[in-house]
Amino acid sequence: MDEMFREMLAVDSAKALAFFWDGLVAVRGRDTVSKAQMLYVSSILAHYSLVSCGSGENFPTPTTLSDIFDRFVIGVSRGETPMDSETMATAGASTLFLNGFFRDQLPRRHSTVYWDQMGQAFYYRASRAERDREKRLLMEGMAASSPSWSLRCHRLRIYLEEERLDRQYLIRPSGQ
User: Fold this and answer.
1) Among 148, 128, 35, which Cα is nearest to 87's?
2) Separation of CA 167 from chain center
3) Long-range contacts for 126-129 (Cβ within 8 Å, ≥24 apart)?
4) How many whole angstroms separate alpha carbon 65 and alpha carbon 109?
5) What is the pLDDT of residue 38?
6) What is the pLDDT of residue 111?
7) HEC profile for the chain?
8) Distance (Å, rounded) from C-alpha 98 to C-alpha 64?
9) Nearest C-alpha neighbor of 20 from the set 70, 81, 93
10) Which residues have C-beta within 8 Å of that of residue 79, sequence separation ≥ 6?
11) Which among 20, 26, 48, 156 is most buried, taking Cβ atoms within 10 Å?
12) 175: Cα within 13 Å, side-chain hemisphere
């Protein structure tokens, strides 16, 4: 058992990024998407695959959309959460991750269309607060295409479940 955990913990961020990049390429179909956005979304999925929900990080992996609402909508309105570009981009990324990758599990409690719009609004705010031109353009692009990325993330989850179900580990540890 210890060996299995050692192998699973051997997955690094580069390996996780490549895994999600390859998956998004596989589900992209005929869509033409921005390479920068593709890398950005791959990095979101890789990050959240490696960060625990209970981690001591400033923004751990969110567990529910209600958590995102409390932190980034209520928290901003109360002045508890800053509305800077990095924080709003994190809100957009968190929304994209949950509303996209776990989309099947949400309709009983949340409107996926509403959360697509929330993700767009978070990215729009991130773009307005961003001073770096390249990051601002990326955030503007994510604001415009966030619902499409949410659906791609959903397709990716289905693809991973259906196409890679027979593999012991979806992400191979480094060196394998």
Assistant:
1) 128
2) 23
3) 126/85, 126/86, 126/88, 126/89, 126/91, 126/92, 127/85, 129/83, 129/84, 129/85, 129/88
4) 10
5) 95
6) 80
7) CHHHHHHHHCCCHHHHHHHHHHHHHHHHCCCCCCHHHHHHHHHHHHHHHHCCCCCCCCCCCCCCHHHHHHHHHHHHHCCCCCCCHHHHHHHHHHHHHHHHHCHHHCCCCCCHHHHHHHHHHHHHHHHHHCCCHHHHHHHHHHHHHHHHHHHHHHHHHHHHHHHCCCCCCCCCCCCC
8) 7
9) 93
10) none
11) 20
12) 5
Across 1-5, 42-46, 56-60, 111-115, least confident range: 1-5
CB 49 within 8 A of CB 16: yes
Contacts of 77 (CB under 8 A, 6+ apart): none
* Residue showing tokens 């989309």: 103
Closest CA to 42 of 155, 169, 149: 149
Token representation of residue 71: 């932190």
Rounded to an integer, the average pLDDT of 55-63 is 65
CA 101 to chain centre: 8
CA dihedral 8, 64, 57, 18 (to 10 degrees): 40
